[in-house]
C-alpha cells in the first residue's frame, strides 16, 4: 500500500514540505488512537531480536538514524512503527535555520536523496524540553558488570527479565555553523551536558558534509582531543553514558585505521558507519550534481565496505551500527554479516515505508530458525 499509493502521492510534492506534513499526519493519527494499530501492524516482539550493547538492551536491532526527527518532535509516535531505537538530532547548542532552501532533493531513478540541510534545528534546550514533556528521563547503563557483587547481578537480572525492553533514544550532537573548529569542543560539551539525563546514548557527529569545515574534525588530533574531553566529562558522572562516533563513508583506509586507533585511545563505546557521502559515482538522476550529502541505495556498497574494514581490522574490538543504503532485509543482513551489531534506516524508510522495519526483523528471526 505504501509504495503503491502513499509514496507516489507524497513524491509529487516538495520533499521538505512533505516531511513536515508527514509529521503532522502521523501525530494526528496517534491523537485519534491509531498508535496501537500501527504497533499491531509493524512491531515484531521476540526475545531473539534483543541485543545488549554497551550496557543497554535494545528490543530489536533496527533503528532510525539521526536527521529524521531532528528536534525530538515525533520519536514516541515513530516508535510504534517497530523501531528498536531512535536517534534524535543532530542538535546544536543554539537554534539555527540551516542552509538556504531548496536543500533536500529526491533522486528517484537512484532511490536516493541529496540533502544540504546544515544542522537545522531548534537548539538543544528545545529538544530537552520536549523530552521532559514526554517523561523521557533515563538512567545510565551500569558501569562495569564484572565489578558488581553476585547479589547485585542477581537482582538486576530479575529486574531486567520482569520488564519488556523499551525503545532507546540516542542523542546526536554537533556544533553550530558559526562556531570555529578551535572552539567546537565547547558546543559538544553543552549538548552533552544538556541531554545527559534524557538520552540513552550519545553520537558525536563530525562527518556531515553540510557544515563548513566540520569534517576537518575527523582528523586524528582534533578528533582525539574532542572525544577525550567528552569522555572525561562522561567518566565524572555517577554513571556514564555510551558515546559513539559517526564517521563519513569517504574516509580512506589510512583514515579508517586512525579511527580504530582513536576508539582504542579514547575508549569510546562504538562507531556509526556511515554518514552521507559526497561521491556522485554511478548516478542516473538529473539532479545528481546538487551539493550536499548523498544517501540511499548508491551508498549501500561503500557503507558495507567501511563496516567490514573496521570490524576486521579492529578484530571486532568495538560495536558498529551500520547505516547507509538499506532498502531491503537483504541489505540489512549484509551489514550485520559485515560486522554491524545494529542497523539504522533513513532513506530506505522514506522509499520503502515502515514495512521495511518489520521485514528486517522477521528476516533476522528466520535466520534463528534455520
Distance between the termini: 30 Å
Average pLDDT figure: 93
CATH C-level label: Alpha Beta
β-sheet strand percentage: 15-25%
Order of helices and strands: HHHEEEHEEEHHEHEHEHEEHEHEHH
Shape: globular
How are the strands ordered across the major sheet? 3-4-7-8-9-10-12-13
Helix coverage percent: 40-55%
CATH superfamily (homologous) name: Aldolase class I
Task: Please provide a written account of the structure.
Belongs to the dihydroorotate dehydrogenase family. Type 2 subfamily. Monomer. It is a peripheral membrane protein. It is found in: Cell membrane; Membrane. With 370 residues, the protein is an alpha/beta fold. It has one domain: TIM Barrel (Alpha-Beta Barrel), CATH 3.20.20. Helices cover 40% and strands 15% of the residues. The protein has 13 helices and 13 strands. Strand 12, helix 11 and strand 13 form a beta-alpha-beta unit. The radius of gyration is 20 Å and the shape is globular. 44% of the residues are buried.
